[in-house]
Amino acid sequence: MPRYIILGAGAVGGAIGGRLGLADRDAVLVARGDHLAALRQRGLRLRTPDEDVTQRLPAIAGPEEIDVDADDILILTTKTHHADDILVRWADTPVHQNGEVIGTAGEHLQIFIALNGVAAETFAHRYFRRVFGVCVWMPVVHLVPGEVIIRSTPRSGMLHIGRVPKTIKDDDQALKHVAADLVAANFDVPLPDDVMAWKYRKLISNIGNVFQALVGHSGDWRPLLAEAEAEGRQVLDTAGIEYISEAEETAARAAGFTMKPVPGVSSSTGGSTWQSLHRGTGNIETDYLNGEIVMIAHQIGIEAPINERLAILARRAAATGSKPGEMSADQLAKLLGRSGAN
């Protein structure tokens, strides 16, 4: 059986690694700071609508603390703006087989990119030969060191996985094996022909993350979101980038899990971008969500002013230590050059 090394065991990584561990799969968590210390001292606590379990899994800071084997599988679960650093750190790690070094992780290991956005697969191809995309549908929260909250039941989430680029088929059996392990770990795991079409659709959905982070419950930002999403779709359509339909996405998300309250967890807790502002990390993933739309627009000679402005505001909020919901929907509308949101 392969060993799964989770590169960035925060919300998504902690949930995947923790679930693999509970399914008796071998998993190693890579973390840092207070979270790493808590994992080592107390273990990983998983809280769901139905469970509250703590387990001990190996937790390390980096590749210098582990002997990497040819059967190991890497799952990258950082935020996109942290991805390149960790890819560089792991790519040249020696890989062992039968006690001998046979090459590097970049040459021999499969790496699965379980991040929002669509940029990290390209990052990974600079260093790794065998790159797989993962479209993550999983409502998870990581605010407290050593703890991850999964807000869905009965399944923990849906992970569409596939080789990138889609034209390469030589890893089909390995892909099916990974899918089987993730299914055993309580995830639904479709194997689409083109996982990036799912990730580009998710990119449109993630345009809304910044509204949740900046405004939260301080007014109705849905009309502004509709404009930002429409701009995003127009950019992708003009660029000729394929993505699945909204109907396909809705059907997939409704099939496997339902969000329910987790005892002791506030219903106002938000998604990944919200969590970055809440924790005061000083950085934010928006440049690879709304900013990705802006980049594509610039590459084809058009503009995406709504998403461009949202990315600017998100960077400013992260840099100044703003907390989620400090801006009203009407204030945001004015900053975007729109009339009142209500």
Fold topology:
Blueprint lengths: L2 E5 L3 H12 L3 E5 L2 H10 L1 E4 L4 E4 L3 E2 L7 E2 L3 E4 L3 H12 L2 E4 L2 E5 H4 L1 E4 L6 H6 L4 E8 L2 E2 L5 E4 L1 E3 L2 E7 L8 H13 L2 E2 L6 H12 L2 H6 L7 H18 L6 H11 E3 L12 H8 L10 H10 L5 H16 L8 H7 L7
Parallel strand pairs: 1-2, 1-7, 2-5, 3-13, 6-8, 7-10, 10-11, 15-16
Antiparallel strand pairs: 3-4, 8-9, 11-15, 12-13, 14-17
What kind of sheet is the major sheet? 8 strands, mixed
Structural class by sheet pairing and helices: alpha/beta
How much of the sequence lies in strands comes to 15-25%
What's the number of extended β-strand segments? 17
CATH H level, superfamily name of the largest domain = NAD(P)-binding Rossmann-like Domain
Describe the global form.
Answer: globular
Model regions low in confidence, pLDDT < 50 over at least 5 residues: none
Summed up, the domain count is 2
For the biggest β-sheet, the strand order reads: 5-2-1-7-10-11-15-16
Short description:
This protein is an alpha/beta fold and 342 residues long. The protein has 14 helices and 17 strands.
Question: How does this structure look, described?
Answer:
- With 342 residues, the protein is of the alpha/beta class.
- It has 14 helices and 17 strands.
- Helix 5 links the parallel strand 10 (110-113) and strand 11 (130-137).
- The radius of gyration is 20 Å and the shape is globular.
- The model has no long low-confidence stretch (mean pLDDT 94).
